[in-house]
Amino acid sequence: MTRGKFIAFEGGEGAGKSTQAHLLADALAARGITCVITREPGGTPGAEAIRNLLLGTAGEGWHPRAEALLFAAARSDHVERLIVPALEAGQWVICDRFVDSSRAYQGGAGGLGDADVMALHRVGSQGLLPDLTLLVEVSPETATARATARDGDAADRIGGRDAAYHARVAQAFGALADAEPARFARISGDPDANAVHREIMAALAPLLGAA
Ligand code: TYD
Predict the structure, then answer these.
(1) Is the CB of 121 within 6 Å of ligand 1?
(2) Does the C-beta of 173 come closer than 6 Å to ligand 1?
């Protein structure tokens, strides 16, 4: 059994990642590739429960270190119970956010640093990394317009942080992609969804050739 490929979507709020994840799943299915589409934080019942702890707006919020531990715990359950078994069964996994979100949000914007986030990832998920990480980048104007259209005033605890925090997130994502060009593809999310999808399929060509 050939192991499936693990594809992650990353980017800030309102980048259009979930739309693109579904378009990609449809395109892979049309090629006869079975895939599982999932998201973080979440993807398993336990991780979805942790998601509610992280993103709910009740209570006093989490210290950056506690926040990073909760994301890592959710990811550990998701990796162990869903992602690795699916890959081992030969399915492809498309995940809306993975460890690079922790590196950008908690490590970069939150000030925890990359080494600590990656240390948690080694403990929680044996350092599993995607075969390909699609970083969907949009201008701050597009991001704000899309996030407002989707969430209105109901942004979650992290999405609702100020513009300076989200600018640091975007900068941290860019630096991660620059540091690992073989794993990342940087995709412009500003054009319409079909044009973005074509760019994503072009970035996937090397993996499809080997499928
Ligand atoms: P979600 O509504 O799924 O965001 P989006 O649709 O913008 O992808 O909420 C996930 C939020 O959690 C988002 O603000 C990013 C944040 N997050 C982290 O801070 N660290 C992480 O490791 C992950 C997976 C998400």
Answers:
(1) no
(2) no
Closest ligand 1 atom to 41 CA:
24
Q: Right CATH number for 6-210 from 1.10.3470.10, 3.90.1150.10, 3.40.50.300, 3.30.470.10?
A: 3.40.50.300
Which residue has a Cα nearest atom 6 of ligand 1?
A: 13
Using a 6 Å cutoff on CB, does residue 75 contact ligand 1? Answer: no
Query: 2: CA distance to ligand 1 center in Å?
Result: 31
Nearest-CA residue for atom 17 of ligand 1: 101
pTM: 0.95
For residue 187, report the phi and psi dihedrals to the nearest 5 degrees: -115, 130
57 phi and psi, to 5 degrees?
A: -100, 5
Q: What is the pLDDT along the chain (211 residues), one digit of tens a residue?
A: 899 999 999 999 888 999 999 999 999 999 999 999 999 999 999 999 999 999 987 788 898 999 999 999 999 999 999 999 999 999 999 999 999 999 999 999 999 999 999 999 999 999 999 999 999 999 988 888 887 887 777 778 888 888 899 999 999 999 999 999 999 999 999 999 999 999 999 999 999 985 5
